[in-house]
Amino acid sequence: MRIPMKLKADHLPGGPEEISYPPEALGQSLALVDCNNFYASCERVFNPKLNGQPIVVLSSNDACIIALSNEAKEFDIKVGEPLFEKRQIIEKNNIVMCSSNFNLYGDMSRRVMDLLSGFISDIEIYSIDEAFLNFSGCANLDKGKDITEYARTIRQTILKCTGIPVSIGLARTKTLTKIASKLAKKSKKAGGVLNLIDSPYLDKALEKIHVVDVWGVGIKSARKLIEKGIRNALQLKEASDSRIRHTMGINGLRLVYELRGISCHSLDNCPRPKKGILCSQSFGRKVTDIAELKQAITAFVANAAERLRKQKSAARHLTVFMLTGFSEDKQVEKNQSVSIKLPTATNLSSELIRQAMKAVEKIYQNGQSYKRAGVRFDELVPSEQTQISLFEQSDSDKTSRLMETVDRLNDKLGSGALRYGTQGAMHPWKAKSEMVSPRYTTCWDELAEVLAN
Known about the structure:
Helix content: 25-40%
Structural class: alpha+beta
CATH architecture of the largest domain: 2-Layer Sandwich
Radius of gyration: 25 Å
Number of domains: 2
Number of strands: 14
Strand content: 15-25%
CATH topology of the largest domain: Alpha-Beta Plaits
Number of helices: 13
């Protein structure tokens, strides 16, 4: 829900303004469920030896640090830093390194979200490890349950069923739930759940949050606010409307109203389909053979096409790109690409792969080494609105049913259980993941083993 802004005709920046909002903007009871150190927590679920150990999770090709456990945060390590810069600190302090295992993380996320959906129907999955809940009108709470205790029940159930610890922040607006969740993580007294709904301690909580840590405040806006003496969330809440409007615009004003307990952002439980889909990867080594490049591009197209079908879209435009290594003469990288306007919008893997192979043959240069490649689908339209070509000879309905079967089996048996022959059996081009954990929950061959005497 967005607050309708009614500006006077003579309104100027910093001048008078009128703001109206519906009564329900004041009465919502929202929550943010945030998984604690999610990637590290997933690694610990099936490897209890990691409990209490400092952990860093690495990106594709084990190149950068993308996640840290609380114990690792005690050292001079930050998310986004290259591994080679921090390797000495990591090895000196016996910090555990894990290659990213997105098959595991994605499935554990799905399990957490399924549990949340069992508690409440009005839910927005915000990211892989976060979800907003709307308790307003919740049947279980209407029966007289205390909202804080209900949140604790949710937290305990998730921990029991998945092994993932979560923090829950309760408040009147999404911005305030972000703050409540952040404080719930740090406070031992809160026990993982902090309720700021009509709390007398709300202002004290806001005073602890630096303005740069407020959800929706970017670095540039934070600098402007600090220059004006606004350094924490409480000062931002108490700033005049005209001052905020002049500094941050209408979105900044909505943010301030959220801090004041007036909801400007409703839950988005029907996310809009993406306007473009990208799938790319750096290779584990330089690739010079066109057959290997075709294997990689086929895998990228198949992955992206599955995502296309999942959001019920079809693509009219396909781009294939490949990034070379440093050239000997100019010492620069070259990004080579080919874009193809498809005859008809499609989400069929076979057709998209066929078109992508043409692009690879156009781009490829014999003797050139490539270190990264990818595909992108653009001009997406709803799949039910695609127009069939007058000269179409294949049975599109039959092919669509085949794609549905392939997607269903891959979802059940694990990604890549069924794949196209051009993807190959061996993938020497794949990114390095020398410290990756097994796919405990999505691959039969990698299930955890229990030995008993």
